[in-house]
Amino acid sequence: MAMMGSDDTRYPVASRRLRLGFVGGGKGGLVGDWHATGIRLSNRWDIVAGAMSSNPENARASAAAWLIAPDRAYTDYNGMLRAEAARADGIEAVVICTPNYLHFEPAAAFMRAGIDVILDKPMTISMDEALELVRIRRETGMFLGMTYPYTYHPMVRQARLMVADGAIGDVRQIVVEYAQDWATAPDDPSFKGAAWRRDPKKVGRASATGDIGTHAFHLANYVSGQAITDVRADFHVCGAPKNLEDTVFMNIKLANGAPGSIWITQAAPGNYCGLRLRIFGLKGGIEWNQEFPEQLRVNYLNQPEQVIVRGHGSGVLPAVERLIHLPRGHGESLSDAWGNMYTELALAVEERRGQRSLPGGFLAVSTAEDGARGVKFIDACADSHESGGIWTKCWIDP
What we know:
The chain has helices at residues 30-42, 56-65, 77-85, 104-112, 127-140, 154-164, 192-197, 200-203, 208-224, 318-321, 334-352, 368-386, and strands at residues 18-24, 45-51, 93-97, 116-120, 144-147, 171-179, 228-236, 247-254, 259-265, 274-281, 284-289, 295-300, 306-309, 366-367, 392-393. It is of the alpha/beta class. The protein has two domains: 7-149, Rossmann fold (3-Layer(aba) Sandwich), CATH 3.40.50.720; 154-330 and 368-393, Dihydrodipicolinate Reductase, domain 2, CATH 3.30.360. The strands form two sheets. It has a nine-stranded mixed beta sheet. It has a six-stranded mixed beta sheet with strand order 2-1-3-4-5-14, sandwiched between helices. Strand 11 and strand 12 form a beta hairpin.
């Protein structure tokens, strides 16, 4: 059996669990269950309060299912904020996993009340709201972390560090795709998530671009170390008729001048969660596929292909080992990535609260600024499409 990582390749031991509340994520909410699974795997949080649905009956039932005490099961986030802020054992952070149009107001309110925020992507449905959340975060000094769980897969962290270390040379081109098929057929009327994803008032100017395109955009920036500065986008409906896009073809430019492309679709039959990243430099290329997350394919020019497999040693970098939980041959998956994400979010909250000090670069959490960049990307894609596919600036340093 492979040896587990040494103490210096593990996350610091927690002294206690942080107290966490939820806004949204209630009964029947798949995303809420993903959050809850990652939280439990991290062993860094206790979910102690929730305003989990706008329907009072669902809110109470959802809280009971998560073993939240009845007196801390709330029917709206304002009531939860007031009650929890007044308690000596009140929540220290809150997760907001509501539809996009319901992100801004609770995130702003909790930060102003001195409660750290963990926010689903995309951050908001407008740049004005996104920039205001960045401003409030800076004004209050609170932590606001975004949930981009794919970047917490060990092999994604490995790819990021290898590219940064020059393993493939200067980045010269990049190709990203994220292909699903659930929007090919007409929407199921019982699927509430589909309904709000088709409503511009609730989802913003784009559907698939915000839903999964922001993951592709963030992953490309994260691994390549290059800002995507410009985009040329064409929106399409390739599945059943709908009033917002289910498919996007994009050309992109990186800050160093390198070209790239992003293909986003939710209407490609036979594709499930096909997030795939390929980056090429003068010395080689590196590839990661979310459906085979434990493998990182590395090709150096005129050399045999290498496959680095998740596990301890054998090419896995020491800074990656803290994200690894099991020896090779015992599969890890997206739920483990969510667990890693909630571990790093907990450490970031503790550091913000002065409860611990970490070395620079130890964490790789996504911040409010990353969230604002995601919203800028969505707007730039929509602007480009509406202008006939012209090149449009898509990077912001808020």
